[in-house]
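Hey all, sorry for the wall of text incoming. These are the two entities for the joint prediction.
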Amino acid sequence: MYCDRCGEPGTHPECTAARELEPPRYCPDCRRRMKVQVVPTGWTATCVEHGDRHG
Amino acid sequence: MPEILDHARTRVLDDGAGLDEAGILEVLRLPDEDLPELLQLAHDVRMKWCGPEVEVEGIVSLKTGGCPEDCHFCSQSGLFASPVRAVWLDIPSLVEAAKQTAATGATEFCIVAAVRGPDKRLMDQMRAGVRAIREAVDIQVAASLGMLTKEQVDELAEMGVHRYNHNLETCRSYFPNVVTTHSWEERWSTLTMVRESGMEVCCGGILGMGETLEQRAEFAAQLAELDPHEVPLNFLTPRPGTPFGDRPVVEGRDALRAIAAFRLAMPRTILRYAGGREITLGDLGTRDGLLGGINAMIVGNYLTTLGRPATADLELLKDLKMPVKSLSATF
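and here's what came out:
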């Protein structure tokens, strides 16, 4: 598993805290950078291999 | 009472004239013990010259990332090792975002694109998007598409875009430390054309990019000279991979001093909370700013980062007995 904020292996307290105000940028399964669309009430992050995530 | 606040009470509160650059700097230098009095004065000025209403806005990115410019604060520049990838929003999703924004009670919906200036593809997308929103949602449409030609200004006005955002970002003297791929004067030129077109001018910037207090005062004075309809005030949120990614965030009391100072520089403008308040001010500070000169806010998420839920901000406005500005009041 990879950190969905910085793409490095594992989880990181700084990234976990920052993620409260950020959508994910990296796929936690494969580390690919995702295409992320933020709208006023949510976000969608798309990995070409692992599909969409929503928040 | 500090002399500068006495002066501001007469000049700004009573007469409705803004402080000059020297006065703004004095305000920015006030010690912490004078902060409550400063905020109260800025609030009184806002209430007298703008009223109790708060203008609520939602923003959305039509074209994210891949920007050719090097704005050092921005995660959407294609020149930095930012994790933000380029992506376009389709028209149905744009209309849905406008609907969600209107459902919060917001009267403003700003469509933003990360570009130097719009090309034909973006202008075509804007035309289709604005038309679709106007057919489906009762909300005012604003736009922020970078630097414009005169023809593009006229085209946006003709589409029905009622307000155009183009931030100067910082004062003229500090701008070359923030952006090197275009000039402050080029931005000013777009703003001048927007004003001449009849569209409302929205122009603000970001505090905490390394500017001095003198430069912060210079920026407020330059904005006052521009006299925009709206000033969005951002506080730097350092983004990973950008040249400003390691900058410290603005200290909360400095942010509140800046809010009050900008209000005293521009007593009649719409002074909007934009990005960064969640980190710089937190919940309590957000409340203090609304009682210290702010009279507008972006609710919900930003372009690439997340905000507080709109419901939390709307509850706060209810607690403060500040009505959300209605659509009819905007015409």
